[in-house]
Design a protein that fits this description.
Blueprint: E1 12-15, H1 23-35, E2 37-40, E3 43-46, E4 52-55, H2 70-73, H3 87-97, H4 111-122, H5 128-139, H6 150-155, E5 156-158, H7 162-178, H8 186-191, H9 193-197, E6 202-203, H10 205-209, H11 214-224
Helix pairs in contact: 5-7
Length: about 230
């Protein structure tokens, strides 16, 4: 049997308009994201490290889309909302992309460099109380659990799992480095609450009927869960 490597055998995958792919394709990508492997004809093929996936989505209400299951959404670290550009920035983009041949793409670092970056981020120190704050934010989004806020029980069908706390901490460590610090603050965790939680909190019909958005729920969570006191 001849095995032909497909596009998933790369360090970085861009899944453009991922919610237009059929469920079978989404399921295959889920294995790659979770296990970092591809199984074909009963044979396991490991993916080279580093491996991570970026994806774009069309609005869910558009025809011809397949909403991603919660299990796959949870594999994505962040859900970043991209809005329209301000006029001046859009003018700059249009000008640059219509004025001649684009410059060739040159590599700035290697896959091994990326693995080194990952290792550096993980070694950033974080206080136990900051980890507990991230865990409490995620746990407070889960309805019908002890201590769940009333608004979560009213508006949420499903909340964030353990990965949310993990990604809040990892993202906060990376943000601290970008900001030139070697420790994590509550502000780092708060800044990443929206991209980390917005695709992990599933609202119910009552919230939809009342015009409640997931951003509004996350804002309430940040107001409800007290951050650690800086000393």
């Amino acid at each position: 049997m001849v095995f032909v490597r497909g596009p998933v055998f790369a360090n970085m995958i861009l899944a453009d308009e991922i919610n237009r792919t059929p469920p079978k394709t989404q399921a295959a990508l889920l294995e790659a994201m979770q296990e970092h492997q591809v199984t074909a004809a009963g044979l396991r093929h490991a993916l080279e490290e580093p491996f991570f996936v970026l994806a774009t989505q069309n609005p869910i209400e558009m025809e011809g889309t397949y909403p991603l299951p919660e299990a796959q959404l949870d594999r994505f670290m962040f859900n970043v909302v991209m809005d329209y550009l301000p006029e001046e920035e859009e003018v700059a983009v249009v000008t640059q992309t219509t004025a001649g041949t684009p410059a060739p793409i040159a590599a700035l670092f290697t896959g091994q460099d990326v693995l080194s970056f990952h290792d550096l981020v993980r070694r950033v120190p974080i206080a136990q109380e900051m980890v507990r704050y991230a865990v409490r934010l995620a746990a407070a989004s889960r309805p019908r659990q002890p201590g769940a806020p009333d608004f979560i029980n009213q508006w949420a069908n499903w909340g964030a799992g353990t990965r949310a706390g993990q990604f809040l901490v990892l993202g906060a460590k990376a943000r601290a480095l970008v900001k030139g610090r070697v420790h994590v603050s509550a502000q780092d965790i708060q800044a990443l609450a929206y991209p980390t939680l917005r695709h992990r909190i599933l609202l119910n019909y009552r919230a939809e009927a009342e015009g409640i958005t997931v951003e509004a729920v996350i804002k309430r969570l940040l107001e409800t869960i007290e951050p650690p006191v800086a000393v």
